[in-house]
Amino acid sequence: MSEPCDLKVVGRSVPKVDSMGMACGLEQYVGDHDLAGALVGYIVPSPYAHARIRRIDATKARALQGVHCVLTWQDVPRIAHTTAGQGWVEPSPYDTFVLDSKVRFVGDRVALIAAETREIAEEAGRLLDIDWEVLEPVLDDRRAFAPGAPVIHDEPEARMPITAPYLPKENTPAKAHMGDGDVDVELAKSHLVLRQEYSTHYAQHCPIEPHVTLGWMDSRDRIVLVTSTQVPFHARRISAQALGIPVRRIRIVKPRIGGGFGAKQEVLLEPVMAALVLATRRKILMTLTRAEEFVSRTRHPVRTGLDVGFNADGTINAVRMRVLSNTGAYGSHALTVMCNCGSKVLPLYRMNAVEFEARAVYTNLPVGGAYRGYGATQAAFAMESLMDVAAERLGIEPVELRRRNHIREGETSPVFAALGEGKPGVEQRIGSCGLPQCLDIAAKEIGWAEKRGKPGSGPVKRGVGMCALMQGSSIPEIDMAAVSLKMNDDGSFNLTAGATDLGTGSDTVLAQIAAEVLGVGADEIVVASSDTDLTPFDVGAYASSTTYLSGEAARKAALDVAGQIRVVASAMLGGPAEGLSLRDGAVFAPDGRRVTLAEVGLRSLYEVDQHQIASTQSAISHKSPPPFSAHFVEVSVDTETGQVKVLKYVATVDCGTAINPKLAEGQAEGAVLNGVSFALTEEYIFDENGRMRNPNFADYKIFNTTDLPEMRVILVPTWERSGPFGAKSVSEICINGALPAIANAIHDAVGIRLMVAPFTPDRVLKALKEKRG
Amino acid sequence: MRFETRVNGAARQVDCDPGATLFEVLRALGLNGVKQGCDREGMCGACTVLLDGEAVLSCITPAPRAAGREVTTIEGLGDPGRPHVIQKAYVDAGAVQCGYCTPGMILATKSLLDRRPDPTREDIADGLSGNLCRCTGYVKIVDAVNAAAAALREGSK
After folding, report:
1. Which SS3 state, helix, strand or coil, does residue A275 take?
2. Cβ contact, residue pair B96, A711, below 8 Å
3. B135, B143, B146: which to substitute to probe chain A, counting the most A Cβ within 10 Å?
4. Is the same domain home to A597 and A547?
C-alpha cells in the first residue's frame, strides 16, 4: 500500500491492551487457571546421554500411593513426528516419539507420570525398574559424522518428511548447498582474501515462565490443553499426529504467555500431556522446572567458516560460508536454522559470487530449537566480525566498508531465490532499506569518530565496535495468517486472531491496524487470541511474521468490514457507498452528513435487513522484507581480570513503520540485552557424560538490572509497501548484534579477536596472553 | 500449623504445613499475581511480595514468618479501575511485555520507592536486581520507576 498522509492510531504508542491487567496481577497465565483436583504431570528424565532401554518395568512405580498413571514407551503409540512447531509439511525430520525405547540426551523422556504431587511423581520415577544398555555418546559436533561414530537415530522410522538430504547413519539430519557464480575464480582475483571460523555456543531462551501445560478431557470427550505455546494450531496438529487421533479431538487454548523467544514454538509438552490426559481422564498440570527448561530446547551452537574476497576498494567479490550446526539429540529446526545462517546474513552485502554449504549434526546433547535470531545470530557474529577484520586490513573505516557493500532499495540478492527452508527460496527486491540512515544515526549517537581507536591508558581499556544486520519478515509463500472481525451494536468490534501474543504486544498491534482502517480508537477493538476452537488459523508467532503477516490479515478484515459498514450507512444516508469515509467512530458522506458506527451497528443487528457485519480474511506473504539495523557499542576491557563491560549500546532499527513505537522499542531493547547477556555470560557447562552442570540462574547468568548498560534504541522509519501501513518485522533482528559489535569493540580496546563466544574473562585473558606472546 | 496474618488489608487465618512457604500459602488463597520462575530458590524474583512493606521472595520465605504481619501482593496494590501510581507508570512506560515478572517487579519498585523516593540510577539497579526480566531489557522498567517516583513525589507535596 502507498504511504498515507495522516495516521491516527498506527504509529502511536497506545498502551498494550493487556498491560494494566498484567500490572495488577489479574491476567491469566496457564498456571492461574482452576487447578482444583489437578494431578501433576512429570517426565522422568534420562540419566544417560545415549542408552537403550532393554526392559522397563513400572509395576512398583504404579503401586506407589498417589500415582495415577505411569506410561512407558510400551504404552503409547509409536508414531514418528517432529516437535518443531512448524507448518505442515514440516522441514524437520520425523525422529521423535512420544516415548521411545532409546534415550538420546541427559534429560530425554524415559516415562510419563501423573501423580498427586511432584514429589510422589519423582519417587515413582525412581521406582521404575529399568535395564539400561548404556551406549557411547556423541558429544563432539565435529566428530559426529565421522565414520564409525555411534549412530544416534538408528530407528527405522526416522525420515525427513520433505525432499531434503537426511542421513541419519552419518548423524546428519540436514545438509544444504547453494551457489551463484564461481567463488574460487572471484577469490583468486581478490586483493584480500580472509578465511576464518567463528563459533557460537549453547543458550536457553529463559522465559521467566517455563513451559507449562494444563490439560483435561471435556464433557464431549475432547482433550483441552491450555498451554504456553507460540503455535496453537501447529500444537493441535502435531499432538493429534503424535497420538494418532483426529485434530478435532484436541482444543488448544493459549492464554497469556510468560515469554517465549522461540522456546514455545516447540510442541514439547502438548503431545505428552495429551497422552497423560487420555490415559487418566484427569485434569493434569505439567510445569517444567527451571532445570528442566534448560534442557528443553536451546539455541543451536554453530561453527561458521567464511572465505571472503575483497577488492582494494573494499567491495566484496565473493563469500563462501560453511556452517556446522549442532542440533543435539533431535533434528528440530536443524535444517531451517542452518539455512537461515545463510539466508538472513549473506544478502546483506552485494557480491559477485556466493556459496553456502551447511551440515547439521546430531549429538547426544540438548536439543536445538527455534530461538530469536534463528541462525542469523550465529552467522552474523562471523560475517560482521570478519568485516571488521577486513576493514582493518584494507585500511577502510568499518562503517564505510558496510556502506560500500550493503544491499539497497530496488536491489536483489541471488541468495533470496536460492536459499529457502529446505527448498529454493523466493526471489525478492528490497522495497525499503533504512540502513544508510541507521549507520549514520548510530555512529553519531555513540560518538564513533571521537571514540574509535582511543583505548586510553591504565589497565582498563575502552573500545567501540559496530555491525550491520538484517533479518526477514515471515516465511514467504509458506506462512498464512487469518483474522476475524465482527461489529457490535455499540460500534465496537471483536477481533479474534490465531496470532499468538506471547508478551510481544501483537494483540495491541492488530487492534491498532484494524482501528486505523475503521476510523476508531484502538480501545474500540476487543482482541482475543488464541484458541483453536474459536479463533481463525494462524501459523503462530515465529519467523518475525506477526505484525507483517497477521497485521495484513487484520487490515484486510477491517477493509472488508468497512465496506459492509458503508453499505449499511449508504442506505441510512441515502447515497452511494463508495464516497463514504470512516473516521472518528462515524461514517461521513461527502457533504458532511454522518451516521455513527453505533447507529450502523444497531441498524444492522436489530432494524433493517438484519445481518452480522463481519469478515474473516487471510494473508499470505509473497516476500520476506528484511528489517535492517545498525548496532554500535562501547565497552571497557579490564586487562588484569579479563572482564568485559558494555558501557553504552546504540541500536538503530529500520522496521518500516513502527505500528506501536514503544512496543517496537521494547522488542529491540529486550533483544539487545538478551544478545549482550549471550555474548558475555550465558554458557552451558557440560560434564564428560553430557550432563549440563549449571541449569539454574545462579550458575547460568542472565543479565539483571545491575548489568544494564546505557542503552539507546532509535527507530528509523521507512515505508515497506508490501506490509500493513508500511510495517516490517522488529522482534528478532536486534538479538544478532551484540556478539559481533562487542567482539569488534574488544578489538578496538585491546587488539584481540575473539572468535569463540561467549567473551568470558578467561577467554579474554587467554587471548591477551597469546597476543603478548 | 495455624497463625493469623493480614493479607492486602484483610485479616486471614492461615492453616498450613509448618514447612510451607509464603508463596504456597498466597497461591492457595487465590492470589495468582504471585508468580514462579525458578525452582523455588529465590533466583528470579517473580514471587516478590511485601512483608510489612519490605520486598521478600515469597518462594523462600517460610509462611509462619507472616504471622502477625501485613502481606501485600500485587492484588493489594491496585486494580485496573484504580491502579496504583506505580502500576500506571509501568503501563504508560511500556514496561510490561509478557507481564510474568511484572507483579514482582512492581512490588520491588514499591519497596524501593518507599525507602528512596528520589532514587539514583544505581538505587534502581540495586533495588530491582533480584527481579529477572527477559523481555524488556529493563530499559522501560527503569523509565517506569523514574516516572513513578516523580509522580509519587508530586503527589505527596
Report:
1. helix
2. no
3. B135
4. yes
**What are the phi and psi torsion angles at A114 (to 5°)?**
-120, 130
A54 in a structural domain: yes
Q: Among the three residues A570, A585, A620, which one is the final residue of a domain in this structure?
A: A620
- The stretch A418-445 carries a mean pLDDT of 94
**Interatomic CA distance for residues A116 and A188, integer angstroms:** 69
* Position B79 pLDDT exceeds 70: yes
Looking up cell 544417560 gives: A48
Predicted TM-score of the model (pTM):
0.98
pLDDT at B157: 72
Whether residue A208 and residue B101 make contact (CB cut-off 8 A), yes or no, is yes
Average pLDDT for chain B: 97
CATH of the domain at A265: 3.90.1170.50
Is there a domain that residue A180 lies in?
Answer: no
pLDDT, tens digit, for every residue of A251-302?
Answer: 999 999 999 999 999 999 999 999 999 999 999 999 999 999 999 999 999 9
Indicate the SS3 state at residue A477: coil
User: What is the model's pLDDT at position A4?
Assistant: 65
Output the DSSP codes for A98-124.
SS-SEE-STT-EEEEEEESSHHHHHHH
Triad A623, A377, A324: Cα angle to 5°: 100
Q: Does a structural domain hold residue A182?
A: no
On whether both A641 and A746 belong to a single domain, the answer is yes
In a domain, A170, yes or no: no
Same domain, A121 and A233: yes
For chain B, give every domain's residue range: 2-77, 85-155
**Chain B contacts of A205, Cβ < 8 Å?**
134
Give the confidence band of A5 by pLDDT, cuts at 50, 70, 90.
Answer: low
H/E run at residue A272: helix A270-280
A754 in the same domain as A662: yes
Domains held by chain A: number: 3
Beta bridge partner(s), residue A525: A493
**Domain spanning B85-155: CATH 3.40.50.11540:** no
Residues in chain B with CB shorter than 8 Å from the CB of A708 are 125, 137-139, 142
| Contact (CB<8Å) A502/B98 | yes
CATH for A468: 3.30.365.10
Chains A and B form CB pairs within 8 A to the count of 187
Can you give the residue range of the structural domain that contains A571? 19-28+480-620
Pick among B17, B60, B100 to test the A interface (most A CBs inside 10 A): B100
**A341 shares a domain with A458:** yes
**pLDDT tens profile B108-148:** 999 999 999 999 999 999 999 999 999 999 999 999 999 99
Q: Which element (helix H / strand E) includes A303?
A: strand A302-310
Are residues A354 and A416 both part of a single domain? Answer: yes
In a shared domain, residues A556 and A677: no
Interface of A with B in 713-772 (CB under 8 A): 713
Q: Would you call A27 an interface residue with chain B, using a CB distance cutoff of 8 Å?
A: yes
Which chain B residue is nearest to residue A662, measuring alpha carbons?
B94
The alpha-carbon gap from A613 to the nearest alpha carbon of chain B, in Å, equals 31
CATH class of the domain defined by B2-77: alpha beta
Cβ pair A745, A648 in contact under 8 A: no
Shortest alpha-carbon distance between residue B42 and chain A (Å): 10
ipTM, 2 decimals? 0.99
pLDDT for residue B156 is more than 90? no
Q: Do B135 and A23 touch (CB under 8 A)?
A: no
Rounded to 10 deg, the angle between the B102-115 and B85-93 helix axes is 120
- Taking the Cβ of residue A5 and every Cβ of chain B, the question of whether any pair is shorter than 8 Å is answered with no
Give the domain-ending residue among A264, A287, A310: A287
Cα separation, A546 vs A138, in Å, equals: 38
Say yes or no: A411 and A551 in one domain.
no
Which value, to the nearest 10 degrees, does the dihedral of the CA atoms of residues A326, A328, A332, A337 take?
-20
How far is A549 from A562, CA to CA, in rounded Å? 20
